[in-house]
Amino acid sequence: MRILxxxxxxxxxxxxxxxxxxxxxxxxxxxxxxxxxxxxxxxAEVEHGMLNSIxxxxxxxxxxxxxxxxxxxxxxxxxWVSVGGFAAGDYADLCDRLDDRPEVDAIELNVSxxxxxxAPQGVGEVVAAxxxxxxxxxxxxxxxxxxxIAEVARAAQAAGTDGLTLVNTIRGLALxxxxxxxxxxxAAGGFSGPxxxxxxxxxxxxxxxxxxxxxxxVGGVGSGRDVLEFVAxxxxxxxxxxxxxTDPAAPARIRAEFEQELDARGVYGPDxxxxxxxxxxxxxxAPQPVNTSFAA
Length: 296
Prior knowledge:
Distance between the termini: 10 Å
Shape: globular
Strand content: 15-25%
Oligomer: single chain
Number of strands: 12
């Protein structure tokens, strides 16, 4: 069981100490061309979480590959690169450029922004194009804002994804108390934080049942108890998001709390609690997930 960060929730180059506490670092989403992102205000605190409307701001593939990626490699933390685009070809081109880069341990396909078709066939098209372009391990990050996330997960699996990241943010709105106008410049934004956890757990549970793929559970993870529940739901790994903004030492704290949760239950290692929320016969029949050994 590894602890990662959610894409966009940590800048490893400005906070290398926090990045060093992770088992892998996930980059902010990279797009083929540079993007300035949305106009301010782009982040707003709300009850039980936060909203963001960053708009995939990033320096683009050329600068990322030429400047950022070599610097990330110096941190000696496994790097997952999150990639995004506006057509299947964008994903394929990025994956092709990352394929021969030894600094990259895995690629995460961000198919859950509003500019990407989230119908199952759309996700399948993106994953298939990426799969044809790279031999790297592929994880597909899905949105909970879909009628049947398990169906989308099956489409990604059929197209060749190696794993799933569940879930991305869900759209929310916050109004200014005085003006009653939206706090964010583009009105709605992606909601994350503790209140997202039940939604993310439901997605992990459903997609594990549907695919048995390795899953990174993300959404409201802020304690060892949260990790315990995600692992029981079927997540082989977890990622931290909003908690990193208020507690940079969260990876170490949460890892210790998780060990305490296991000890309190007399459980030796996360493998012995994995998928406990599912019917025992179904878990016994399932293939074992990869990379589930607990990293200190």
